[in-house]
Amino acid sequence: MLSERRLEVLRAIVQDYVGTEEPVGSKALTERHGLGVSPATVRNDMAVLEDEGYIAQPHTSAGRIPTDKGYRLFVDRLAGVKPLSSPERRAIQNFLDGAVDLDDVVSRTVRLLAQLTRQVAVVQYPSLTRSTVRHVELLSLSPGRIMLVLITDTGRVEQRMVDCPAPIGETSLADLRARLNSRVVGRRFADVPQLVQDLPESFEVEDRGTVSTVLATLLETLVEKPEERLMIGGTANLTRFGHDFPLTIRPVLEALEEQVVLLKLLGEAKDSGMTVRIGHENAHEGLTSTSVVTVGYGSGDEAVAKLGVVGPTRMDYPGTMGAVRAVARYVGQILAES
């Protein structure tokens, strides 16, 4: 276990390196931080931190920089989440409140996160499997064709065309719409199949085929597609950190182009707490020089999706964590009110 003083030295090194982009020496630490000890003592503490793998010396005559292990300890033990100022919180709320639908919410959230953190922002669309039904609309397009519109509690809208085996009249369609909504509104997607399985039998024989076809399309719509949707923004921000990537920024950009990689980065939506993965904790080879900060968001207590940012390991962790958490909270509120 490191002593409190050595933890303070590590905190000071991380803060200075993130702020200045320069390796940190013992003299600068004692001048900038009230550590209450001599430069010689700080040098000794830095030697211990280096032996333990928390800091490293990039060049023989240079100061020290944090390693992945050092950043990990900083995040776990030393970094509080920096709260946003009142003007920042108002700006977030005003910007997101202007959204007109779910696509607009996600688009605005990506832009906002990228601007606030100056990193790459990634936002996952709310998962269908973790949503509840708000409304099912059935619209007659022609005697044998219906449009099915599924609206979730998160504002997600799914549309499907249904070709009916026989024409269905407006009265029967209105009856189906009413009976269907009475059973499924407010219910979890996973519960819907059981709730509607006997519905066709309650209709006249001539309408049962069409009712069954509509229900089959609805149940198909409820199944989550493997290619979950997400949006990414602020990739150009990485060009500001070119020197933070050992060889080239290209592997990072290539990794960010792969949807599967991004979904793995965000992780399972049910893990709604804040997650910070640093450097080599990211399994994908192209992202071992980055840190990823993610958190779940939702319209209630349960997360329906994730959002987060990707940036270099030399990151303002308290500020980034504060921004990600605040934006997730506001998006959750918008979904709850929509």
**What's the count of strands?**
10
Helix percentage range? 40-55%
Count the helices. How many? 12
Note the main sheet.
5 strands, antiparallel
Please tell me how large the radius of gyration is: 26 Å
Shape: elongated
Give the helices and strands as they follow along the chain: HHHEEHHHEEEEHHHEHHEEEH
Structural class by helix and strand composition: alpha+beta
Head-to-tail CA distance between termini? 49 Å
Strand percentage: 15-25%
Strand order, biggest sheet? 7-3-10-9-8
Mean pLDDT: 86
Structural description of this entry:
The chain is of the alpha+beta class and 338 residues long. It has 12 helices and 10 strands. The protein has helices at residues 4-20, 26-32, 39-51, 68-78, 86-97, 102-117, 170-184, 192-196, 205-222, 250-256, 259-266, 317-337; strands at residues 55-56, 65-66, 120-124, 133-142, 145-152, 157-163, 230-233, 275-278, 290-297, 305-312. The strands form 3 sheets. Strands 7-3-10-9-8 form a 5-stranded antiparallel beta sheet, with helices on both faces. Strands 4-5-6 form a 3-stranded antiparallel beta sheet. Helix 1 (4-20) crosses helix 3 (39-51), helix 5 packs parallel to helix 12 (317-337) and helix 6 runs antiparallel to helix 12. The longest helix has 21 residues, at 317-337. The model has no long low-confidence stretch (mean pLDDT 86).
In short:
The protein is an alpha+beta fold and 338 residues long. The protein is built from twelve helices and ten strands. It has helices at 4-20, 26-32, 39-51, 68-78, 86-97, 102-117, 170-184, 192-196, 205-222, 250-256, 259-266, 317-337, and strands at 55-56, 65-66, 120-124, 133-142, 145-152, 157-163, 230-233, 275-278, 290-297, 305-312.
